[in-house]
Amino acid sequence: MAADTHHGGYWNRILRVNLSDGSHLVEELDDDFMRTYLGGRSLGLFYLLKETAPHIDPLSPDNLLVLANGAITGAPGPAIPRFTAVAKSPLTGGLAASEAGGFWGPELKFTGYDALIVEGKSEKPVYLWITDTSVEIKPADSIWGKGAKPAQEAIREEVGEKRARVLSIGQAGENLVRYANLGNDLGHFNGRNGLGAVMGSKNLKAVAVKGSKKVPLVEPDTVKKIAKEFAQTFKDNPIGNSLFEYGTTIGVNAMMAGGALPTNNWDRGILEGGENLFCNKYNEEILIDRKGCFACPIRCKRVVEVTEGDITVDSDYGGPEYETLAALGSNVGVNDLVAVAKANELSNHFGMDSISLGMAISLAIKCYEEEILTAKDTGGMELSFGDSDMLLKLIEMTAYRQGIGDLLAEGQALMAKKIGKGSEKYTITIKGQEVPMHDIRTKTGVGLGYVVSDIGADHLVAPHDSFFTVEDTWSFDEARKLGITKVVDAFELSEQKAKNFVIISRYARMLDIIGGCFFGFAPRGPMPVNTMLDMIRAITGWDVTIDELLEAGDRGIVLSRIYNFREGFSKEDDRLPDKYTENMVEGPFEGTLAIDADEFYRYRDYYYRHMGWNAETAYPTDKHISELGLEEFK
Ligand code: SF4
């Protein structure tokens, strides 16, 4: 591809901070690099592969923490606010990579940097304060020990900038909870894989940023026009309207109707009283506002508040989305909406991934029910599904690693190793990470994503099956533009389905790395593919095609596979959890839908082949690695 001499969207500059010796420096990137890698996760992986030795301890100073914007993050277009946090994961031992929206990524861009690489470890707690003109490492002794909101307030006060954007860890990150997260603006998270523990292991409490530089645009008028038209029309699209109206909370209604709402550590698919968590109830009873991310009119994020009664909920921490309603609701048997909203607030305050947290708690309850754990292990606490007081207590104990919380802080896979006594059969993890709240028996495309994902089970590898099941729908017409020509059933395990998945997962990875939001773009979101292309071209000045973008997504996937295999992963780790080889237990699919493992693995092998990988080894062929220009990582 040709290097463009005029470009927009990014600065070609990376800031590196070494916490061991307190130094920092700026590194230049060339245009070819940005156009090839697109930033985000791919940029992070490039540095992780180059600069970390294999098999390092993820919680040692040898790990890098890369906070990388996409090439177009922070441009004033809809749904492009995202950055990726990348490191080696203390939860899985493989790649940690997690995207977050909000305002922090754009604000970092406004300081004139595309990415920040944090190296080493500070002797004492510190935070970073980055502006257009300065980079300071400041003591954080008085902030260490605080939750997200007080930490953010204290930092803003100290730097004298009310509008500073703060990316921080809570107590969970400080205490190295293996699924601690990074949060910005109290409501946007690099949630999965334990990136908060990596930041905590470096004695880094937060990174505060404030910039004043506008992201350069090659065709500013076109970007403005696209943004204006999108803001006026996105609600005409049913997907856009539903995102605004309900965010992802409508998932509770849909999953329960299908008997597929993870309930009581996945023993059931329907929660008694689960209607309390339905999206319409949620809107009526606790929703007070909606919020969104930088320059995005969709405003799909929830804001909830409870001011009366035994439990109050602080609106500054946003509100639970589908994953949290299920993980800290149905999955632990809790059908009290206010309690789940409180659990969400606490999880955000202490800084933990709500999916892994809910799954760790549900495993402990299950083990208690089975008398594998007893009151002796819990310090006298009774554990039972549906007990919301217990839930709120356990969240706090986990963040501080107090009592049984020390065990919960390890996540399901390590918990089962420590507990023993057959507890492993109650875990549902892939590559050491707890599965999200989607039952893959009812959507086998998501299942393929869970299994082949290099960050462990992940529901955001590609848009879900329902967008590709019916001809002549808006979503499927959009999918055609990516090269998908045939609809496939939600339950099938066919070569055609694997082929479609190859395309759609490359597309989703491309959106991740360029700074795009999973929910913004067709076929999952309301912005049409061609408008997205026009927007990328107008921001960057690149004459990109969809094929070039899909190739960049492919490069991102291949880089993560190279990294994970370097760390000792193999085809064996692309494993289907046993739970899904059992029939559904209730609802319309009761007694059916058990996945045949052999059939599933044949389907997975089709995926490898269509990815240009060797199906025997699940690893990209030399030829494919060369085609992507990644020879140096062979
Ligand atoms: S769609 Fe929602 S999550 Fe995505 S950028 Fe817009 S407001 Fe943020």
Describe this entry's structure for a reader.
The chain is of the alpha+beta class. The protein has 24 helices and 18 strands. The strands form 5 sheets. It has a 6-stranded mixed sheet, sandwiched between helices. The protein has a 6-stranded mixed sheet with strand order 8-7-12-9-10-11. Strand 4 (83-88) and strand 5 form a beta hairpin. Helix 20 (495-514) packs across helix 22 (546-566). It is globular. 58% of the residues are buried. The model is unreliable at 1-5 (pLDDT under 50). Residues 79, 81, 101, 243, 292-293, 296, 298-301, 517, 519-520 line the site of iron/sulfur cluster (SF4).
Small-molecule binders here are: iron/sulfur cluster
Overall mean pLDDT: 97
Major sheet size, sense and barrel closure: 6 strands, mixed
Strand order of the largest sheet: 2-1-6-3-4-5
Q: Radius of gyration in whole Å, from Cα?
A: 23 Å
**Strand fraction:** 5-15%
Total beta-strand segments = 18
Distance between the termini: 21 Å
Tally of helical runs? 24
- Which structural class matches the secondary elements? alpha+beta
**Relative helix content:** 25-40%
- Low-confidence blocks of residues: 1-5
User: Overall 3D geometry?
Assistant: globular
Short description:
By secondary structure, the protein is of the alpha+beta class. 38% of the residues lie in helices and 12% in strands. Helix 7 runs antiparallel to helix 21, helix 20 (495-514) crosses helix 22 (546-566) and helix 20 crosses helix 23.
